Amino acid sequence: MKFLLLLIFSVSNLFEANAQTVKILTSGTKVSLRGLSVVNDKIVWASGSNGTVAKSLDAGLTWQWIKVNGFEKTDFRDIEAFDAKTAIIMGVDSPAYILRTVDGGLTWVKVFENNSKGIFLDAMEFWNNQSGIVIGDPIKNRFFIGRTFDGGKTWQTIPEANKPVADSGEACFASSGTNIRKLNKAEAVFISGGLTSNIFIRNKKILLPIIRGKETTGANSIAVKNSKTFIIVGGDFTAKDATDSNCVISTNGGATFFVPDSLPHGYRSCIEYLQKNDWVTCGLNGVDYTKDNGTIFRKISDEGFNVCRKAKKGKAVFFAGSNGKIGKLE
After folding, report:
1. Domain residue limits, the chain
2. Other CB atoms closer than 10 Å to residue 167's CB: what's the count?
3. Does the chain have fewer CB atoms within 10 Å around its N or its C terminus?
4. Is the pLDDT of residue 6 over 90?
């Protein structure tokens, strides 16, 4: 009887560990996708290089590929979609743009432009359909911050004195649009990397025990379960298989951070909180899944992706990456 119970327990654990997988929905397009917004289980938008936006209205079965007129060379590294018609895309630099559509991507209106020397936008985050924030790399040692309160129709740069101060060699990674996240109904939290790697919570700047010291190292993505529990992933994007201090966790609102014993299996550019104790993270060499708040990360796919996002209203989880590759958690 003991042997039978042990066998059942082992099979159950094996099934649970392999219950998730990633199904490839489309690939082969010459575009690197880093922006992803999942409105619900049916409506999905993605954005990327060469002025490209992708949209599906049937849970990823079919895709519409859009070239944004006049911005064919712009790298749109983040996107925020609100429904099948309305979305906002962020072009990173030279100059930096934010565009908005209300007709499903047929036409786009430029709602923000910045020609400052050194401008480089990294990510957007929205609390709701009206209030949002955009973050960019430091200019004159202060991180760029812009705000919108009308659904992205207009954007205002916050006063210089209110912009967070950056250390030398510190910046953000525009790898997945997830280095800034809402912390609660009114506040956001963001992370940095490079020669140093920090988390910025309200007026606090906290050094992270994540790999740092080179321009290619540091924190890339943060996901928030609640105001107390965050998981941050990153690493060195030039060493996709390296696992040295590529993930840190806080369960007390950022008072302390720790490195889990079982780390994701390589550099990770994005992490997403799903439900209960479940999280998913992706990078250049695959996808990891944890069912215990990061205690153990199990690799569920060798397919590389830049970004993973869960439906705002629903349970579907999608992935996007290089060569126009889009996947779905099964």
Report:
1. 24-329
2. 16
3. N
4. no
